[in-house]
Amino acid sequence: MVFEPPAAVSWDFPRDDAGVELLVGVGLEHGATRERMLNGTGLDPSEVGGAEHLVTARQELQVVRNLRHVVPDASGVEVGLRYRVTTFGVLGFALLSSRTLGEAANLAMRFIDLSFAFAIPQPVVDGDQVVVTFDSSGLPSDVADFLAERDLTAVWSVLDQLRPGGFRPTRVELAARRPARGPSYAVGVEPEFGAGANRLSFDVELLEAPVPSGTGQGNAMTTAMCADLVSRRRARTGVAQQVRVLIAQHLSAGAAMRDVAADLALGERSLRRRLAGEGTSYQQLLDEVRESLALQLLDTGVLSVEDVAQR
To answer: What predicted TM-score, i.e. pTM, was given to this entire model?
Structure first.
């Protein structure tokens, strides 16, 4: 089997806030407040966890740092084990409707930016083994090990849920030179710490293992929904991409340019220059976000045109 390369090779893509909510949940269990866990992100504690709420990668990174400050010995393993297939929204439902683990794996790679990955998985078939390497080389050094542990464990957790009791890795390698804090992997193999890389290996025959919930029915529909969602999120890149996400977060308060610029640690003049360099403007992005939200509200059929206009 040949794996499709991930469409997004960078970790710096907008993401649903479910990953942030998981991190906040761990912090709350250790006595932190929601405000403390979201400190420095610009996120409203009352809005995180809402439907269709996006955050920037850098906002999620700040929450990771906040967790590490509250719980210095926190392990990515502890967070990764909390991921459920349904955590990934429409991508999760597409995975559940896949016929085999291999089909689900390729789907996940194709739509990697509907996940919460920072250490992008890179699977290859090596003889009778599938070796998935989690590259953390481009991540900030203070959180790279944590994120690699989290993302590797989340992938194992999802694969195990797609085939309950039928997925067991043959080897788990972690670059971190310290024992993991929190729950055991419980995968039948102890992680090898200080391995120089972050890798998860399993028998290649598991790629043909059927997904019990995957009859194939609904797979085309959920895949199309993933494709549509991804195309809209990839419509902008760079600073413009981050600005769109931040505008959506500030929209209820008017989305003043000074507020969005402050979230990016930029002055308004600098932000204008950066956006002009990417061929757009703040007003154009604001109009795009408003139009997108209006279309979503109209599609629900719940609100009248007048109500949507008022919002």
So the answer is: 0.83
CA 279 to chain centre: 27
- Give the whole-angstrom CA distance, residue 40 versus residue 62: 7
Q: What is the rounded CA–CA span in Å between residue 77 and residue 87? A: 16
- Judge whether 109 and 207 are in contact, CB under 8 Å: no
- Compute the mean pLDDT over every residue in the chain, rounded to the nearest whole number: 84
Give the integer Cα–Cα distance in Å for 39 and 240: 24
* CA nearest neighbour of 150 among 74, 90, 207, 88: 74
Q: Which candidate, 163, 170, 149, 164, places its Cα nearest to that of 207?
A: 163
The answer, yes or no, to whether residue 36 has pLDDT greater than 80, is yes
pLDDT per position as a tens digit, 177-215: 765 555 555 555 677 888 888 999 999 999 999 998 866
Q: Which residues of 100-137 are buried (b: 16+ CB within 10 A; e: fewer)?
A: bbbbbbbbbbbbbbbbbbbbbbbbeeeeeebbbbbbbe
**Axis crossing angle, helix 18-29 with helix 57-70, rounded to the nearest 10:** 10
